[in-house]
Design goal:
This protein has 277 residues and is α+β, with helices and mostly antiparallel strands. Helices cover 53% and strands 9% of the residues.
Length: 277
């Protein structure tokens, strides 16, 4: 569940020193004990092997479920992998607690997740955590505005209601739904992410915390389509969505003051379009 994003407030201390100290101390203590455990398992394996009882992979794994386990590798091989896995989980939790994920659009979150899985992670220590969080706080406005710009740039300009200069009263999204003899269904992929990103931006501009992603606009719209096969209109707090058999959806904004805030951000990034607006 998404936590309330602290980064969009004036609160500058995203994590207090006690929380950071607890994370670093626990992290270091856990790694020491894990390495001790690996060495103890190796010693026990030597003992049981010497008396004909097999090693730890023989007697510690369930029958028919003998998968590789890093605890049964040599410390010099296992500890870098175990450390990376623990650090990845900690950085993921820190990012969630910071609220930065709620400011990112789907593309940015996907890139962050890829970096988390495949990239080199900063070591878990007080200096790195403080430095990372300070950088996050300094870039929060930039990250949020980039999310709005990416949603804006992702719109199709094939329709006159989608102005290439600003958000109007209504926008049209291609390929948001599909239709067959059983009725409508919501598509997966970029367009669905775009709709969710748009709702997220409106939530934040409205000063509201992001709701659980299990109840975002895409989930609610999907449930509406499923429960109302004969309808082609969905009404929500921020917009009305009318969808068509060819797959397009017309989104009419219900909060013009929030649309103006998005347009202010677009104008900031594309000042040459002010005249057109």
């Amino acid at each position: 569940m998404q936590t309330e994003p602290e980064v969009i407030t004036e609160h500058t201390e995203l994590m207090n020193s006690t929380s950071i100290e607890r994370i670093v101390t626990g992290h270091d203590a856990a790694l020491v004990q894990i390495e001790q455990l690996i060495k103890q398992l190796s010693t026990i394996s030597q003992l049981t092997t010497g008396i004909g009882g097999g090693n730890a992979s023989d007697w510690a794994m369930k029958s028919e479920h003998r998968y590789d386990c890093w605890l049964m590798e040599k410390p010099e091989k296992a500890m870098p992998v175990i450390t990376h896995n623990i650090d990845r989980s900690l950085w993921r939790g820190l990012m969630l607690k910071s609220g930065m994920l709620s400011l990112m659009d789907a593309q940015a979150r996907e890139q962050w997740q890829q970096n988390l899985e495949e990239g080199d992670l900063p070591a878990i220590n007080e200096a790195n955590i403080l430095s990372t969080f300070q950088q996050l706080h300094q870039s929060k406005a930039e990250v949020f505005e980039r999310g709005i710009i990416n949603v804006f740039k992702g719109l199709s300009w094939d329709y006159k209601t989608n102005s290439p200069c600003f958000f109007g009263k209504k926008i049209i999204i291609n390929n948001l739904v599909t239709h067959n003899r059983w009725g409508y269904s919501l598509t997966w992929g970029f367009r669905r992410d775009q709709l969710t990103d748009l709702e997220r931006m409106l939530f934040l501009l409205d000063g509201k915390a992001i709701s659980d992603n299990r109840g975002d606009i895409s989930i609610r719209l999907m449930d509406h389509i499923r429960d109302n096969p004969g309808k082609d209109v969905y009404d929500d707090a921020y917009f009305t969505i009318r969808y068509f058999q060819k797959g397009t959806a017309h989104l009419t904004f219900k909060r013009p003051e929030l649309v103006e805030k998005m347009n202010d951000i677009i104008s900031k990034h594309y000042p040459g379009m002010l005249a057109s607006r």
